[in-house]
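Practice problem 4.
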């Protein structure tokens, strides 16, 4: 019995590790770009939208129930943001509606990435989180938030360890304040 409990604890630890790594990989780049460029790139937002919409289609064909409705609602949020981008006029004077849409887009980008991964994982593999105890869930949340905050801080301070050339070579534009490459 003790061996079975240890195996079960080991399995929970592996599941927790998979979730932390997966969510951290997904959240680091959007957080970094927000720090370095002060914005989320369209490809990040559309990747979140595509993954969430694909998962939404799967959820809509699942059996009925409250869990299905909550998942569908969570997965529909990136589509609501995208629809609002078409509806709300782009204005130079930053009216309240434009500002609210920009805030909503930021929330979608920051919150939808880990939420989409979680819901997608639970949709495809329903037992994925059943055995995760609350202390492990707290570890997951804290770990992903720490990675996001650290990535944002790295983006803000990119000039301390990256050069403008690093961004160009990687296929990115130069962020404001990047450090020119040293000349020899």
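Answer key:
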């Amino acid at each position: 019995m003790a061996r079975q409990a240890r195996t079960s604890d080991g399995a929970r630890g592996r599941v927790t590790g998979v979730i932390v790594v997966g969510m951290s990989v997904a959240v680091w780049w959007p957080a970094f770009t927000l720090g370095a460029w002060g914005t989320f790139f369209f490809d990040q937002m559309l990747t979140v939208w595509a993954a969430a919409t694909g998962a939404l289609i799967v959820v809509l064909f699942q059996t009925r129930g409250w869990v299905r409705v909550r998942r569908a609602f969570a997965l529909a949020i990136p589509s609501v943001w995208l629809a609002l981008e078409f509806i709300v006029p782009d204005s130079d004077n930053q009216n309240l509606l434009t500002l609210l849409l920009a805030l909503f887009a930021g929330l979608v980008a920051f919150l939808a990435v880990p939420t989409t991964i979680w819901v997608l994982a639970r949709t495809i593999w329903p037992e994925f989180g059943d055995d995760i105890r609350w202390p492990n869930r707290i570890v997951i949340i804290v770990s992903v938030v720490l990675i996001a905050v650290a990535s944002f801080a790295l983006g803000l301070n990119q000039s301390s360890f990256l050069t403008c050339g690093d961004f160009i070579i990687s296929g990115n534009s130069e962020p404001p304040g990047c450090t020119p490459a040293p000349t020899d």
